[in-house]
Amino acid sequence: MSKHVFTSTLILWVVLAHVGYAQITKQPQPTKESPLYIDGFDYPDFDGFSNYALFKVNFPLTESTEFSIGGRHYRTFFADRFIVPFQMKQYLDNKTYILGGYQWEWDLLNDGFGYPNPIPRQDYFYGVGHDVRPNIMIEATIVQPVGTPKFHDIGLEGARTRLKFATKLKF
Fold first, then answer.
1. Topology (CATH) of 30-169
2. Sequence-distant (≥ 6) Cβ neighbours of residue 55 within 8 angstroms
3. How much is the pTM?
4. Less Cβ crowding at N or C end of the chain, within 10 Å?
5. Strand-strand pairing, 80-91 and 65-75
6. Could you tell me whether strands 96-107 and 121-133 are parallel, antiparallel, or unpaired per DSSP bridges?
């Protein structure tokens, strides 16, 4: 038997064994579901260049306390930014919560130089939120930069502390 036929036969047997193993009905079931959950979305691509997307990995610490880490990326013709927030959320009752955290923001265009700004903008934030319904959330947060940032949020040149309102509708 030639080396080529032997190799082809061996590959065929490995593929068939893999397919056959996948057909076994008694696969082991996980014993406990993970408490972690991932939240995120991405806007549709309308113009081929602009983008806004975010993701967040949530770690419930207790029934009323949650820690999360995530990422947000937004790109327009005027800006390209990536933000990494760390957040702690504490529910005061079933629907109302306080939150606080810290975030780093990188200017990926770096004033048109074409490479990322190596020094991220740093902010801390705190606020309050309310789950209006299981699929509707509103938040109000105060965002304060740390130190003197080299760049500002788009449209907020020269502004330091800012009040940010957010809503989320889940479908």
1. Porin (2.40.160)
2. 38, 39, 40, 70, 71
3. 0.71
4. C
5. antiparallel
6. antiparallel
Kindly report the CA angle at 157 between 151 and 163, in degrees rounded to 5?
Answer: 105
Tens of pLDDT along the chain (171 residues) come to 555 555 556 565 555 555 554 444 454 555 557 788 887 777 777 777 788 888 999 999 998 999 999 999 888 877 888 899 999 999 999 999 999 999 999 888 876 666 677 788 899 999 999 999 888 999 999 999 888 777 767 666 667 888 989 888 876
Strand partners, 86: 69, 102
Beta strands in 61-161 (DSSP E): 65-75, 80-91, 96-107, 121-133, 136-145
Residue 96 C-beta-side C-alpha neighbours within 13 Å: 3
Query: Residue 14 CB: number of other CB atoms within 10 A?
Result: 10
Looking at residue 123, the DSSP 8-state letter turns out to be E
Which among 125, 118, 123 has a CA at the least distance from the CA of 148?
A: 123
Neighbours of 106 (CB within 10 A): 19
The answer to whether 154 and 79 have CB atoms below 8 angstroms apart is: yes
Dihedral in degrees, nearest 10, Cα atoms 51, 52, 53, 56: 150
